């Protein structure tokens, strides 16, 4: 089946986003991505009744052998475009991000996958950990608390579109039921490779918005970093291994 391909408006490691009339088509890259498309659609459907600014899912279809999710179009530039200008714009957008993230974390999660199980699965399957370190991490992870909050799993300035007053959060494929501190840690790990200054400033903004202890976030660093190794990011491997050994 062929899709009425509009302009390419976004591209990432897992998928491309195209205009699709007055909607958007998130088209997963070639390969066994059917499960990813249906999983993201199911997550968007599950959170639709919550007070969460996310696009409404409209369908899943196959186009030229690739699976895609059709959803409402989120208008506006990514927060990153303003944040990367630095100065007052950076501070303002990071503060808005922190408030938004805390608002998401205030939501009781619907029937999604468990955050800790997702971390355990990735730590177990990455070949980049030696068995001694892997066992230490899995034993430590088993002692970490479970949570019952909605966690996005991929929350960073490129996944927040629009202005500060009416943002939309996209890319919910990794959403889970979990612990907010671990979700903040995930944001830090995702941002720290390219912009450690922004990653640290974002954690500071979240701490200021919520009052949680920095130690709660830091406690998750080895597990989140080790799990990230399973995602195939060679340019981050050395840094992630160092964090996993903390």
UniProtKB/TrEMBL annotation:
Domain Aminoglycoside phosphotransferase, residue spans: 8-210
Top-level taxon of origin: Bacteria
UniProt cross-references to SUPFAM superfamilies, sorted A to Z: Protein kinase-like (PK-like)
Residue runs in coiled coils: none
InterPro entries linked: AGP_Transferase (IPR051678), Aminoglycoside_PTrfase (IPR002575), Kinase-like_dom_sf (IPR011009)
Listed name of the protein: Aminoglycoside phosphotransferase
């Amino acid at each position: 089946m062929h899709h009425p391909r509009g302009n390419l408006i976004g591209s990432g490691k897992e998928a491309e986003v195209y205009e699709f009339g007055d909607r958007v088509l998130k088209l997963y890259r070639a390969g066994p991505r059917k499960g990813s498309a249906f999983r993201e659609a199911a997550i968007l459907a599950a959170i639709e009744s919550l007070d969460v600014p996310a696009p409404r899912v409209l369908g899943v279809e196959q186009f030229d052998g690739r699976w895609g999710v059709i959803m409402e179009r989120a208008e506006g530039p990514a927060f990153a475009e303003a944040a990367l200008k630095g100065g007052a714009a950076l501070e303002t957008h990071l503060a808005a991000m922190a408030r938004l993230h805390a608002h998401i974390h205030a939501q009781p999660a619907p029937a999604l996958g468990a955050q800790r199980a997702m971390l355990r699965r990735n730590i177990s399957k990455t070949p980049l950990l030696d068995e001694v370190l892997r066992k230490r991490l899995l034993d430590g992870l088993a002692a970490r608390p479970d949570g019952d909050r909605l966690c996005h799993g991929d929350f960073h300035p490129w996944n927040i579109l629009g202005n500060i007053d009416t943002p939309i959060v996209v890319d919910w494929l990794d959403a889970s039921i979990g612990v907010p501190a671990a979700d903040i840690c995930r944001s830090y790990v995702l941002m720290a490779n390219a912009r450690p200054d922004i990653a640290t400033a974002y954690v500071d903004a979240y701490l200021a918005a919520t009052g949680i202890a920095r130690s709660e976030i830091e406690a998750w660093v080895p597990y989140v970093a080790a799990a990230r190794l399973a995602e195939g990011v060679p340019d981050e491997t050395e840094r992630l291994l160092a964090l996993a050994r903390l």
